[in-house]
């Protein structure tokens, strides 16, 4: 993942977490979308390389993006920037399975055993990805 995309992702995540509830006192903010409390949206942990986005899977335009291996048992963060709900479901049927509503950030625990785990979206037969666990 290039540095510019990482920066844009960090800025977008920061905006979702911290700026979503900002408003002007006395102003009618009824057109503002409901925001999840910051405590329910965990930030990704820093990796040994210092890249907070290394353990993140992005969903955008009906595709997964994650080319960086993760450590066994680590927290994997999934950010759905798409307009539809998707899942991250291991093809083996048991290693991991999370539903990710559009615009949401969720986490799951990477498998404890090193290996290559293929995954798909239950609602979109064309979406496939691979999680490498070391």
Automatic annotation (TrEMBL):
PROSITE patterns with a match to the protein in the record: PROKAR_LIPOPROTEIN
Keywords from the UniProt entry: Signal
Span of the signal peptide: 1-27
Superkingdom classification of source: Bacteria
Protein name listed in UniProt: EfeO-type cupredoxin-like domain-containing protein
Species of provenance: Arthrobacter cryoconiti
